Amino acid sequence: MAGRQAGRVVALCGGIGGAKLALGLYNILEPGMLTLIVNTGDDFEHLGLHISPDLDTVLYTLSGVADPERGWGRADETWNFMTELGQLGGETWFRLGDRDLATHVLRTAWLRGGKSLSDFTELSAHALGISAKILPMTDHPVRTVVETAEGNLAFQDYFVRRRCEPVVKRIRFDGAAEAKPSPKATNALSGPDVRAIVICPSNPYMSIDPILAVPGLQCAIKNATAPVIAVSPIIAGNAVKGPTAKIMGELGRVVNTQTIATHYRDLIDALVIDESDGRDVAGIRTPIMATRTKMESLADRIRLGREVIGYGDSLTQKSAERAARVGQ
Amino acid sequence: MAGRQAGRVVALCGGIGGAKLALGLYNILEPGMLTLIVNTGDDFEHLGLHISPDLDTVLYTLSGVADPERGWGRADETWNFMTELGQLGGETWFRLGDRDLATHVLRTAWLRGGKSLSDFTELSAHALGISAKILPMTDHPVRTVVETAEGNLAFQDYFVRRRCEPVVKRIRFDGAAEAKPSPKATNALSGPDVRAIVICPSNPYMSIDPILAVPGLQCAIKNATAPVIAVSPIIAGNAVKGPTAKIMGELGRVVNTQTIATHYRDLIDALVIDESDGRDVAGIRTPIMATRTKMESLADRIRLGREVIGYGDSLTQKSAERAARVGQ
Questions:
Q1: ipTM for the complex shown
Q2: B49 — contact with chain A (CB < 8 Å)?
Q3: Among B92, B95, B34, B90, which residue's Cα sits nearest to residue B61?
Q4: What is the pLDDT of residues B291-304, one digit of tens each?
C-alpha cells in the first residue's frame, strides 16, 4: 500500500462529521494503524433491536457502503420493511432501511446470545473488509439523555423524533460514570507507539462528551504520551451541519473557537481550526493550527487527515527538542 | 356483500395447502363468519425473531399479499436484508424478505413487551384488512420436533434447512400437552351457531396433529355440535405437494384415503376426498364425498369451499331428520 503512513493513530468520533475525518485518516495510514473509539451514547433499543447509529455510520463510511447523500445509512438502500411496518401500525419515525436492518438484527441476536458490542463491531468491520480497529467506547450501556424545556428525552427521541426542536438545558450520560471502557480502547490510547490521538470534529457536547464521560477513557487520554489534537467543528463562527450551533446557544455558549478550546482545554495539546476562524483565537493558550477543515470531497478528508497527523508530529518533535534542551 | 353465506365456520389449518381452502371459505362467507385456528408448532426463534410461518402464510393469503409463485412469503418481495445478512456472516438458510421482516420484527417486539401471539395476530389481520378471525392454536409455546434417523430436528431445521431429507421416525409436539388453547378458539368451536368445522387439506401429521395435540382443542372439537369435515390432502394416491407422501411412507402408512380416514376417525363426521380416489374407500365407515379437491385457481378454492360447507349442511340436515324420526 504505497504512500501510506506508518505509526498508530487513535481517533475519537461520533457519527457523520467525525466519520468524514476518520475516513481521511483511514486512507492515509497503513492497514491496522487506525483505531477509532466511537460514541455509543446514541445507542438505543427500538422495535426490540439494538441500534448503534454512530458505530454504523463509521462502519458504513469506512467500508464505502454509506449513502453519500443522506449521510447516514446505506447506499442503494430500499425501504420495503419500513413501508410494511407502517402498514402494520408499527413506529416509523426512525427510518430503518432493508440493508441496514441486517446489521441491527444480527447485532441484537449476538448481544442476546451473550456476545459484546465490541465482538459484533469487530465481526462487522472484518466482514465489511475494514482494516481499521473500530471500538465502541464501552460495552456497558451509556445513554445520552437530553434535558429540555419539554422534559427529558432519550437521545434519538430528541434528535430524530423531535428533530432537535426542544430547547436543551443540559445533556447527561446515564451509566457513563459506572461504565468500564473497552480494554482495547485503553490499550490503544496508552500504547507507547501511538503517533497521535485525534478528537474528530463531531459535536463536542453530544458525540465526544459521552466518550469523555467514561472515566477510564478520560484518564487514558490524559495519561497518553501521544499528542492529543482536537479538530474544531466550528467553521466561520458556525457549525458545519447538524444541531451543534443551536445547542451551544441554548447551553449559553458562544459559537466560536474559544468555546471549543475552553471545552477541551484540560485534555488537548493542540487545536485545529478552520482558516475562516483564524482571527478568533485571542486568549487561547492551546497551540493552534488553522487550515481548511470543511470536508466536501474524499480529497478534503485525506488532506485534513494528513495535516492533522503532520501537526501532531511537529508537536512531538518540539517536545522532544524541549526535553533535549532541558536535559543539556 | 351479495352472494355470501351466513353461518359461522371454523377451520383448522397449517400453511400453504390449508390456506388455499381457507381463502376459498373466506370468499364465500359473510364478513366475520370465518374463524381459522392455525398451527403454531412450526414457530421458531431465528436471529432473535419470533417467526410463525403458518400464521403468516394465512395472513398473507387472506389479505392478498402472498406471493402466488413461491407459495410462502410476500409478493413484490425484495431480499436486500438477506444479501447484507450473508455479507455479515449471518445465517441465510431461512429466507426472510424485506417486507416479510416487518411482521417478524413487530411481532417479536410485541411478544417481548408482554403481548400475546393472539394479540399480534389480531392486530396484523386488522391492519391487513382481513375480516376473518385468525387465531394461533395457543399462545403457549408448542414446538414440533421431527425425530429422524439423523437425530431430533426442530421443525424448520428438518423442513427448510434439511429439505425434509432425513427419514422421519416419529413426530412429537413439545409443550402441547401443557398448552392451553386460545379461549377464542375454544369459544369459536363450541358455539351453538357454528355451521361446520373444517379440517383443511394440510399435512395431517405436521400441520393438523399439533393443533389436535393441544388437549383443550381436541376436546372442544369432539364436543362440538357442528359437523366436523376433513378434506383429504391425498389426490390420486399421492400428496399434492410437499413432503406428506414421503413422511407417510416413512411412518409406515400407506398413502391413500383409508389412512387419512383412519387418522381422523375419532374426530370427524365426514371426509371429503378427491374424485380420483373415489374407488379407494373400501372399509371406510366415515361418510365420504368425492369431488375435485385440487385447488389451482381461486375459483377452485371457492368451489371446494362451497361444496364442503354444503356437504356439512346436508349432514346437519340428515341428523336433524334422524332426530325427528327418533322423536316420533
A1: 0.91
A2: yes
A3: B34
A4: 999 999 999 999 99
